[in-house]
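Fimbrial biogenesis outer membrane usher protein
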Amino acid sequence: MDAAPIAEVQPAAPDTLQAAWLAVTMNGVAQADVMVQRRQGRVYVPADALRRWGVEMAGLAIVELNHQPYVALGGDGLAYSIDESTQALALSIAPARLVATSVQARRTSHGAVARSGWGGFVNYDVLADRSYGASTVSGLFEVGLFSPLGSGSTTVVARSSGSGAKVVRLDSAWTIDDPDRLRSLRIGDSISRGGIGGTPLRFGGVQFGRSFETQPGYVTLPLPSLNGSAALPSVADVYVNNVLMGHQDVRPGPFAITDVPVVSGAGQVSLVVRDMLGRQTTISQSYYTSPELLRAGLDDYSAEAGFARRDYGTRSFDYGSFFASATYRYGLSNTLTGEAHGELTPSIQQAGVAADFVVPGVALVSLGGAASHASGGVGAMLSAAIQRSG
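Predicted structure tokens:
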């Protein structure tokens, strides 16, 4: 038995609906077949289908046909044609009418962090020297332990010569890392954050703060993004300082290539977009980024309290007066990072604020100020710096 021919879609009579299943392509890409409706010479497509295909629905008039939402084709960037012989609907959607997409140029996902077992290690560096009949042996030694509860280590330096031998403890600490939350707790010897108006200080006590190094490869500085638009499926080549960094497939419509991997300093990123017809568009922009900046919404902090270390490297257990400090930095935007810092000792109290911001494509500007109070009076400082590299 011969198959019955597929009926052609005929114009509907006034105020009556005519439905038909049509094969659909949108901007050259095949989509799922869809049931369209015709009435008074107009063609209507289900609103849900347009939404699935990535059409931006804001501003489109929705009409109800057979108790279902439909959108009329032919206006608002929804051009179309129907091939009656093949029962095919070809949609030509303006790029501005498509939902914007975002593609990361740099993969930032991290796998599950492996949990530690039990173990230990020993590191050593030994140097022997003989000169003018005198012998000297010195060494740096580290003994460590790691476990599911954290890790600890102790370092000592030893020296032996004709005048005698001496062993000095350097640092001893137990560290509990939380890589999922990018933070660490350290109990023992450590170094404080300097912050505006302060200097890093060796101390023995407790320190809690951000620890980006617990996730190797985690990027804290802002990375540039490039925006473009494509009418057809395209391939985007990403260049940094004229060096090809990779390829990205982009869908029709507005798009953004985010997190382009760059080196710090000044440079230029370019995007070469080629569509399926071979047409090419190039987009270029200058950038400036610095490790002093934090990505928008990212924060960095540290709080510590303990006793200042004295005669480090010559005496093992010499600690001085109590001190406490705290530092907080926050990426207010990809071009502006703010900082607040405070320190407290029995004799000095100090606080300061600072900001690092980028003059786009030019340089990094740092501004800050701090004030302190001590038994001898009060003090203040202002700082300003401009840095450019690359």
